[in-house]
Design brief:
Chain B: The chain crosses the membrane at residues 12-35, 55-76, 88-107, 113-132, 212-231, 260-279, 300-321, 341-363. The complex is a heterodimer of chains A (353) and B (375). With 353 residues, chain A is α/β, with parallel strands linked by helices. Chain A has helices spanning 2-36, 60-75, 89-99, 113-122, 150-163, 178-198, 215-227, 238-251, 278-290, 322-335, 344-352; strands at 45-49, 78-82, 104-107, 127-131, 142-147, 168-173, 203-208, 232-236, 254-259, 270-276, 298-302, 309-311. Helix content of chain B is 75%, strand content 0%. Chain B is globular, with a radius of gyration of 22 Å. Chain B has one domain (59-327). Chain B has 17 helices and no strands. Classes of the chains: A alpha/beta (353), B mainly alpha (375). The A-B interface holds A 24, 52, 80-83, 85-88, 90-93, 95-96, 99-100, 110-111, 113-115, 118, 121-123, 133, 175, 177-179, 210-214, 239 and B 51, 53, 57, 60-61, 156, 160, 167-171, 189, 194, 208-211, 278, 282-284, 288-289, 291-292, 294, 326, 329-330, 332-333, 336, 339.
Chain lengths: 353, 375
């Protein structure tokens, strides 16, 4: 078992290395070819700043960067990033990217939102975009990119409702905000939808870790939930969530991952994951901008319809038939038959229906 | 021979050698990792000097490091190792942010008020450590490390209070605009200001696009003031006497415990001032939920060490640190080298600076050996 694990890790490392090597050499080739045939499409340059999570955060920063790398492979656009170590670096880093000739600049995560506004204000000729934030008033050279995270949350909530045997499920959030509300209420609605279908009552206990990086606290909360009788817990808590998954492993209960397929963290305990494909959205918006479309001054929203959210394909841990049923739910959401709530008020309206 | 030995023994030369060694080792590490060392280092230097904007960003980045460095150096002169600079800095941030949000007076009152809040918070937090040391003899390193954590979690708690937390962000509201200490802060966001600054490339780069603030000027003034206090006043003599040999100091009638307390209060106050300028002078003008220490106070230890705990030396050491931290990002950006490499450079420099103490005896032995041969 241990040997297998070591082998798997080794293989994964080798693959990443070789991938990285490919990426590196390709970049160089592109750069040299650029200088020769400069009239081609690749004078477009896209760059991003990470939030303080860093580029290898196993979450949206990494996903966004993967999206940009794909963009570079497909179109030959120049892509680059700068990691931000602290909040006061955001504006400085955006300025630096602007200097280096980037035409479209991404701020990843709502923590960068104000910095993006500030940079956009002093560089009216550059195009900016920010992930996970919508402004009340969006300047002409800024695009907000939002996800309907309630949709995959509804789907995993439905899975949780169908899977639970103790009729008690849990939700662990990061820091309470409008963004995490989408996850929470989408999930709760999904659970209630399944409960209605099964004709039983399912209780959802909700708790916040008050942090996106406190794995110990995430673990403590989830452990408490499991010992209180929850058998499925969904988390939308970033780094605190790794603690939740850890707790599931120890308790031998189900956990639902978030943002990316987190099955690799605990293959026998991750029931499914609610996907939020930041990279895909980043890539698509960047492509639109490259094609010369006006993307500024608005907030673009991505959901099931755009195939930027969903649940992981792997479903060996789910009871039979649940995966298929959940996909049908997905279709119903797409067609508008189910309107998924994303706030408390909408949720209350949803369950009284 | 004697002449070279003399030059080699000078702290300044030794520091320069240490810095060069740091770059040398960094170059070796870079080439082992597969990045071209000369190109990388030139990128690093270009990242700092290639334009007025970068220089002004380096100064901004250095300001809190210089100020906290002076704070640490001050305590060091009294024989205290203020590893709690980080916590005092965080408490200063918390205090100036909360005061800056709650109060909204005209700038003439507001700025001194916010700065004072930072200084007082830092001073109280540093003073606590000094008190515990003076009254109960608890080692300042132990207490201040613990206080760092208290500060971190206190800051996160404040950050998430409804009164201060800006909805849908990870941080607090910014402080009220009247407390901004940027140069031409308010004017440059107005239309006329923008037009005026945009007309000149130099002004546009240095002032409009960066958060140039008064902190750096304050740092220079403070360095001079602290030097004056330490070397030209009776109080300074007492403080240094306690640092040099507390028993001898006690024997001559200097109140050691009181001086320890005073030293920590002042040291903490300076760190708090650094924080207050950081909050009022840099966007986002508030505190964010911290997952880990941001290292301003810890880097200050390195700054102080490189500066040989001279307050004026801290200005240059702080600029070096700030330059490395800022230029290091272009290393990542241009060459693709991980930004951690810059932490290695800094680590190596600090390591070699610490090693310089073995140079004088080495030089001595070497020159003596030379004399023997001459005989």
């Amino acid at each position: 078992m241990k040997f297998k694990k070591a082998m798997a890790i080794g293989l994964a490392a080798a693959m990443t290395l070789s991938l990285a090597a490919c990426g590196g050499s390709k970049d160089k080739e592109e750069k040299t070819s650029d200088s020769k045939t400069s009239d081609k499409k690749s004078d477009y340059s896209v760059a991003m700043i990470t939030d303080t999570g860093g580029i290898n955060d196993q979450s949206f920063n990494q996903s966004a960067w993967e999206g940009l790398q794909e963009l570079s492979e497909e179109t030959g656009a120049d892509v680059n990033y700068i990691e931000s170590k602290q909040a006061s670096d955001f504006v400085t880093n955006l300025e630096r990217l602007g200097d280096s000739g980037a035409t479209l600049l991404w701020g990843i995560g709502y923590a960068c939102a104000d910095a993006v506004l500030e940079a956009a204000d002093s560089n009216p000729d550059l195009q900016y975009a920010v992930v996970d934030n919508s402004y009340e008033e969006t300047p002409d050279n800024v695009t907000g990119v939002m996800f309907r995270a309630q949709e995959p949350s509804f789907m995993v909530g439905y899975v949780a409702g169908k899977t639970t045997e103790s009729n008690k499920v849990g939700f662990v959030g990061g820091i309470s905000s409008g963004l995490i509300d989408q996850f929470q209420y989408g999930y709760e609605a999904g659970v209630q939808y399944a409960a209605k279908e099964l004709g039983k009552e399912i209780e959802v206990s909700v708790q916040y870790a008050e942090s996106f990086s406190d794995a110990a606290k995430g673990k403590a909360i989830a452990s408490k939930m499991y010992s209180d009788g929850c058998d499925v817990v969904y988390h939308a808590a970033g780094g605190s969530g790794t603690g939740v998954i850890e707790a599931a492993k120890e308790a031998g209960k189900w956990v639902i991952g978030v943002d990316r397929d987190q099955a690799y963290l605990a293959p026998d305990n991750v029931l499914t994951s609610a996907l939020k494909l930041v990279g895909k959205a980043v890539k698509e918006v960047s492509m639109e901008a490259m094609d010369g479309e006006e993307i500024g001054g608005q907030t673009l929203t991505f959901g099931l319809e755009e195939e930027c959210v969903g649940i992981s394909e792997e479903h060996k841990n789910m009871p039979e038939g649940v995966y298929e049923a959940t996909l049908e739910i997905g279709e119903k959401i797409k067609s508008g038959e189910i309107e998924v709530p994303s706030t408390k008020d909408e949720y209350e309206a949803f369950i009284t229906k | 021979m004697d002449k070279t030995a003399k030059i080699l023994k000078k702290p300044f030369t030794m520091t320069i050698i240490a810095i060069l060694c740091g770059f040398l080792v960094a170059g070796i590490i870079l080439s082992i990792a597969g990045y071209p060392p000369f190109h990388s280092l030139s990128v690093l230097i270009q990242g700092v000097f290639s334009g007025p904007k970068h220089i002004s960003n380096v100064i901004i980045k250095s300001t809190p490091l210089i100020l906290t460095g002076i704070g640490v150096a001050f305590a060091f002169k009294t024989g205290l190792f203020n590893i709690g600079a980080e916590g005092q800095f965080i408490m200063g941030c918390v205090a100036s942010t909360t005061v800056g949000i709650v109060c909204d007076f005209p700038a003439v009152i507001q700025i001194p008020l916010v700065l004072a809040a930072g200084v007082i918070a830092g001073a109280v937090f540093g003073g606590l450590v000094g008190f515990l040391k003076a009254r109960f003899g608890i080692h300042e390193v132990l207490t201040s490390i613990m206080f760092n954590w208290i500060a971190l979690y206190f800051s996160n708690w404040i950050c998430n209070l409804e009164r201060f937390h800006k909805p849908d962000t990870i941080g607090t509201y910014p402080v009220n605009e009247s407390s901004y200490t940027m140069i031409l802060g308010k004017w440059k966001t107005t239309k006329e200001g923008k037009e005026a600054l945009l007309s000149s490339d130099f002004l546009k780069d240095t002032i409009l696009k960066t958060d140039v603030n008064a902190g750096f000027i304050a740092a220079i003034i403070l360095a001079v003031l602290v030097s004056f206090l330490l070397y030209k006043t009776t109080k300074g003599f007492e403080l240094r006497a306690v640092g040099a040999n507390r028993y001898a100091a006690e024997f001559t009638g200097i109140n050691v415990n009181r001086n320890i307390l005073h030293s920590m209060v002042i040291s903490g106050g300076i760190c708090g001032l650094a924080a207050a300028f950081y909050i009022t002078g840099n966007s986002p003008h508030g505190i964010a939920t911290l997952a880990a220490f941001e290292n301003t106070g810890f880097n200050a230890l390195g700054v102080c060490l490189i500066a040989g705990s001279s307050p004026v030396g801290c200005i240059f050491a702080g600029l070096l640190f700030g330059g490395l931290l800022y230029g290091g990002q272009s290393l990542q950006y241009e060459v693709g080298a991980p930004s951690e490499i810059i932490n290695i450079v800094i680590g190596v420099i600090v390591f070699f600076v610490a090693l310089t103490h073995i140079i004088p005896p080495l030089v001595e032995r070497f020159s003596k050996g030379g004399k023997k041969h001459a005989k």
